[in-house]
């Protein structure tokens, strides 16, 4: 498989999170950091290859390859401290109460099958003292795109995405039920069918950590797959920097951008800026070419749908701990806006029932209930707020990051 390298600027403050190891790119599209890797030992790779054909999607997970991975030994004491942010870090950073999600059902929609999904999630939850979520206790369900039990073919690249998604929902909403709906392929029609299945199975939140090129077909996809009033549907804004992906551009979803999250000596204890690694890697944002502007979005520099709505951690240099054994060898670290989408879906689950037809609109009614991200940019663009952070709304981080549940409570 072809690998592609880019030069990146990794933030020094994030480096204690990560270890050092040789860059492994088997089955991955590699994004190394030549200038910084030698000094700081941080490198990562795309879990899924970028696809530019409209109607074909790819996952937005970035696998940090400079962390030595360790398999959790069954039946022994959990590893003391996996690299990357864990549940307590994320709950602290976003002021989220512990033990949330009761009564809600979060669906994860991904392509292909992860044969170790249930067991890997069980290890993650045991490591952090979270309640068990299994098929036997009725908490977890793994189905194909039509709800059946005949699962699609295994895929190690998408398995990293699946592990990441399940672990982030577990971290933020540990008492929610989880449905993993696996599409037969990464086409929009198959993934969209999986979204409909998730809604039909009773999901109250649906996370989609994938995207692809916009096209004139997108508005028809909206009505076919994402028109589920009252269900919080979150979508990653993309990892390619300034530019819009679908389905993040759909006005029926919450488009979730990405930040760099670091500890700070302020009253919050954390600080965030726009995630930007290079001109071709960072959080996606911008003005849709096709999608109409929803009535609840009022920025004046884009006459159509603007991405994003809200944001959360995505920088792989400030990444999260994930347990994955199909396509990886245990504890590892992930970044990308694939972190942010399931994280925000978990926040919606913590907030409870959604009275708004399109839950994305709730944040626009409560902008002061978010952490406003005001520093960083991914490009130079006009108007500047579409690619640069500023006070109030901006494209890369939307209205900001979670600060409790108010901005997600209908």
Automatic annotation (TrEMBL):
Residues 1-37 form the signal peptide. Coiled coil: none annotated. Keywords: Hydrolase, Protease, Serine protease, Signal. Residues 75-410 form the Peptidase S53 domain. CDD domains: Peptidases_S53 (cd04056). It comes from the Bacteria. Residues 271-291 are annotated as: Disordered. This is S53 family peptidase. It comes from Streptomyces humicola.
């Amino acid at each position: 498989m072809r690998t592609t390298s880019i030069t990146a600027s990794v933030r020094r403050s994030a480096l204690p999170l990560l270890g050092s190891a040789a860059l492994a790119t088997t089955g991955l599209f590699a994004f190394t950091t030549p200038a910084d890797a030698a000094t700081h030992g941080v490198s990562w790779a795309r879990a899924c290859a970028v696809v530019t054909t409209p109607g074909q999607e790819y996952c937005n997970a970035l696998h940090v390859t400079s962390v030595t991975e360790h398999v959790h030994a069954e039946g022994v004491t959990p590893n003391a401290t996996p690299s990357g942010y864990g549940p307590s870090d994320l709950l602290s950073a976003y002021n989220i109460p512990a033990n949330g999600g009761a009564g809600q059902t979060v669906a994860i929609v991904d392509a292909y099958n992860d044969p170790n999904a249930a067991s890997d999630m069980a290890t993650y939850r045991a490591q952090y003292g979270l309640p068990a979520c299994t098929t036997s206790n009725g908490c977890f369900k793994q189905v194909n795109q039509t709800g059946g039990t005949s699962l699609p073919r295994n895929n190690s690249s998408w398995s990293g995405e699946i592990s990441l998604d399940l672990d982030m929902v577990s971290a933020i909403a540990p008492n929610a039920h989880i449905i993993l709906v696996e599409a037969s392929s990464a086409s929009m029609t198959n993934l969209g069918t999986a979204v409909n299945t998730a809604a039909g199975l009773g999901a109250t939140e649906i996370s989609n950590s994938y995207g692809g090129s916009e096209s004139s077909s997108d508005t028809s996809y909206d009505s076919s797959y994402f028109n589920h009033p009252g269900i919080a549907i979150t979508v990653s804004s993309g990892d390619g920097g300034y530019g819009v992906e679908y389905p993040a551009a759909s006005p029926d979803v919450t488009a979730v951008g990405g930040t760099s999250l670091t500890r700070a000596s302020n009253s919050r204890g954390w600080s965030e800026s726009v995630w930007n690694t290079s001109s071709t890697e960072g959080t996606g944002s911008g003005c849709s070419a096709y999608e109409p502007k929803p009535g609840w979005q009022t920025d004046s520099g884009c006459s159509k749908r603007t991405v994003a709505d809200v944001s959360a951690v995505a920088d792989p240099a400030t990444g999260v701990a994930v347990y994955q054994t199909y396509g990886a060898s245990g504890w590892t670290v992930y970044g990308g806006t694939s972190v942010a989408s399931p994280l925000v879906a978990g926040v919606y689950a913590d907030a409870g029932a959604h009275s708004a037809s399109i839950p994305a609109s709730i944040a626009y009614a409560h902008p002061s209930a978010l952490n406003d991200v005001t520093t960083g940019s991914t490009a130079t663009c006009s108007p500047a707020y579409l690619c640069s952070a500023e006070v109030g709304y901006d494209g890369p981080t939307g209205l900001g990051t979670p600060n409790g549940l108010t901005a997600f409570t209908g």
